[in-house]
Amino acid sequence: MMNLLLIGIPVIWMSFFCYLFWYITSAKHYVFITKKYANVLWKIHKGNQMCKGNKWRAIMHKDGNIIGFKCDCGYAYSQTKPVLSSLPKTIHQNTNSEIYPKIKF
Which of 11, 38, 96, 99 is the most buried (most CB within 10 A)? Predict the structure, then answer.
């Protein structure tokens, strides 16, 4: 009985951590896009795939925002990103008042 516990408990914990790692790395959520961006993506699809479709339909999220598009040819695109993705870093830009006094004419 003790042998079974010495083997079974680490196996259960290892399988739990494997599942947790898989979930963190593969779970995704939808990112909202604008109608103009969906149109640009559709035009890129048309040009790259030599698509014969003339129209595209927006794929809507349940709250009414656009998350992708579906082409007449059957191609569907939806914008997703990982659940645990880092936020983009903000870049501090100098304002004009900081730059111009340093320039000597």
Answer: 38
